[in-house]
Structure formats: structure tokens, C-alpha cells
Amino acid sequence: MTDVLSAEDIKKAVGAFSAAESFNYKKFFEMVGLKKKSPEDVKKVFHILDKDRSGFIEEEELKFVLKGFTPDGRDLSDKETKALLAAGDKDGDGKIGADEFATMVAES
């Protein structure tokens, strides 16, 4: 992940949402520096978060999204996970594809 984003930005962004139920993907993507990255870099981050290499980030993977940025990240609550999925899953298939992820980042 630090090939794409600065370790300092990751630490700050993950730390900002360390409290339960505090996660806000729009603020997080902005703080972590993802919003300013090229579409290629956003895709790289997507593939890092797609742990099972299915081409999608499923609900189970979303729960651990902060850990995808740093091992110190907390797990998202079920409520936060469902809110993140609802925000990103534009076609209603229950998972977030690469294009949907790019749209989420762009909208943040």
C-alpha cells in the first residue's frame, strides 16, 4: 500500500477513525491521499483491498478495509460495513467492483 500512498497519510487517516462507528469513507479517502491519485493508482489500491482476487471487494473484505491500509487498522462494525457497501455498490450486486470503487473515490 505504501507503494501508492504515503505511510504518514495512512497513519493519520486510519487514526482519525479509530473510534467505533466513526468511519466516513469520503473523509478517509481524502485524508489518505487516494482522491488525488491517478486512476491507475486507485486501481492498484482496489486490487490490494480485493484480498481473494475475485475482482470485487465483498462485504467480508470491506469489514477489514482499514487493515488493508495498515495492519494496525481496526475492523469496521457491521453498521459501518453495510453503509460502505451501500455507498459503493451502484449496481446492487452486493459487492464493489473496480469501477464502482473508482467512482466512490472520485465522489469523496
Automatic annotation (TrEMBL):
InterPro entries membership: EF-hand-dom_pair, EF_Hand_1_Ca_BS, EF_hand_dom, Parvalbumin
SUPFAM superfamilies: EF-hand (SSF47473)
Entries under CDD domains matching the protein: EFh_parvalbumin_alpha (cd16254)
GO molecular function: calcium ion binding
Binding site for Ca(2+) 2: D91, D93, K95
EF-hand domain segment(s): 37-72, 76-108
Name of protein: Parvalbumin
Lineage: Eukaryota, Metazoa, Chordata, Craniata, Vertebrata
